[in-house]
């Protein structure tokens, strides 16, 4: 099978590219050239801009094209214009920030939390507010235009190119943007306790280790039955944040205490303003049932690899 990956050289991409090539597929990676990573020699590299991708990408006639970097409505429109009629089907990466719970968590929308704390399945209500990172510091490029809800709407408004949408969780692992660095820095001898804002300590947010998340993309790309589907991706069970940190503490061999405290008991710069009564735990039953998804890397191993990377980066001054 011919697979074209747009992006694919930073966090999740290298794992899925290596896996696809290892399965015997012909893989081409189109990227900006900003992150050159070690990939199998058989993988073809093409460089260019996502804002103006070369039309000769169509000549590759991919059976599947995977878009790792569709951030805006304009990105989705360019993608559809370029590949409709020239690719067999597509897999596009979205995010769990499309859910209404995210808008309420960020206080972009008003509303009470649900009566039950059941995880959000793929049919849960979507965010009505737009551009969730506008005028904010966020972990995304072009925050003023970023909105995965608009990306999904553009993709679903057409049927000529069958599209699979994968809603990613909070992805962590070596080479992430140091999602867990502030906590790993505290999991050290001599630090007797970590104080957590109490509502944050009770909050649930689905995460996924980078290699495990990449496996979900591989399954979506290699299963024709995934065409037209939308799938949540991430761990099967999302612990509370206090439970998550306790797990990381065990792996790090840290024996201090995790202490939930009211927000006003913390220094002002450590208080967190989101509404933590709105959980971002997502239900990943569908991808497990329909595509046979299972994590290739255990939770403990993923945590251990991330801690080791963070400590090595700190030792190197990075």
Kindly describe this structure:
The protein is 29% helix and 16% strand. It is of the alpha/beta class. It has a single domain, classed as Rossmann fold, CATH 3.40.50.720. The strands form three sheets. Strands 3-2-1-4-5-6-10 form a seven-stranded parallel β-sheet, sandwiched between helices. Helix 2 links the parallel strand 4 (64-67) and strand 5. Helix 2 runs parallel beside helix 4 (148-156). The radius of gyration is 20 Å and the shape is globular.
Reconstruct the topology from this structure.
Blueprint lengths: L1 E5 L6 H10 L3 E6 L12 E4 L16 E4 L5 H11 L5 E7 L4 H6 L42 H9 L6 E6 L1 E3 L8 H4 L8 E5 H4 L5 E3 H13 L7 E3 L8 H11 L5 E5 L23 H7 L7 H17 L3
Parallel strand pairs: 1-2, 1-4, 2-3, 4-5, 5-6, 6-10, 7-9, 8-11
Strand share of the residues? Answer: 15-25%
How many structural domains are formed by the residues? Answer: 1
* Number of helices, counting only DSSP H or I runs of 4 residues or more: 10
Rounded average pLDDT: 95
Record the strand order, biggest sheet: 3-2-1-4-5-6-10
Low-pLDDT sequence parts: none
From the spread of the alpha carbons, the general shape counts as globular
Please report the distance between the alpha carbons of the first and last residues.
39 Å
**Sheet/helix structural class:** alpha/beta
Number of strands: 11
| Second CATH tier, the architecture | 3-Layer(aba) Sandwich
Order of helices and strands: EHEEEHEHHEEHEHEHEHEHH
Summarize the structure.
The chain is an alpha/beta fold and 318 residues long. The protein is built from 10 helices and 11 strands.
């Amino acid at each position: 099978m011919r697979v074209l990956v747009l992006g694919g050289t930073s966090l999740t991409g290298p794992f899925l590219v290596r896996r696809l090539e290892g399965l015997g597929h012909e893989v081409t990676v189109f990227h900006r050239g900003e992150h050159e990573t070690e990939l199998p020699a058989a993988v073809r590299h093409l460089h260019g801009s996502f804002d103006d991708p070369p039309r000769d990408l169509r000549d590759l006639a991919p059976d599947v094209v995977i878009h790792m970097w569709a951030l805006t409505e304009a990105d989705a429109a360019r993608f559809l214009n370029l590949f409709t009629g020239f690719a067999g089907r597509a897999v596009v990466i979205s995010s769990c920030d499309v859910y209404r719970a995210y808008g309420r968590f960020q206080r972009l929308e008003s509303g009470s939390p649900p009566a039950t704390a059941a995880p959000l399945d793929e049919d849960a209500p979507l965010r009505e507010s737009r551009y969730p990172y506008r005028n904010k510091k966020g972990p995304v490029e072009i925050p003023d235009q970023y909105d995965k809800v608009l990306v999904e709407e553009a993709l679903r408004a057409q049927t000529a190119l069958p599209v699979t949408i994968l809603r990613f969780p909070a992805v962590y692992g070596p080479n992430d943007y140091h999602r867990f660095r502030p906590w790993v820095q505290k999991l050290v001898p001599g630090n007797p306790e970590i104080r957590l804002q109490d509502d944050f300590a009770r909050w649930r947010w689905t995460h996924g280790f980078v290699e495990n998340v990449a496996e979900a993309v591989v399954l979506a790309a290699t299963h024709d039955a995934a065409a037209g589907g939308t799938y949540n991706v991430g761990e099967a069970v999302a612990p509370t944040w206090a439970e998550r940190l306790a797990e990381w503490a065990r792996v790090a061999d840290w024996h201090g205490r995790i202490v939930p405290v009211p927000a006003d008991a913390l220094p002002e710069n450590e208080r967190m303003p989101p509404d933590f009564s709105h959980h971002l735990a997502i239900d990943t039953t569908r991808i497990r049932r329909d595509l046979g998804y299972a994590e290739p890397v255990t939770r403990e191993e993923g945590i251990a690899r991330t801690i080791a990377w963070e400590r090595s980066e700190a030792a190197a001054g990075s």
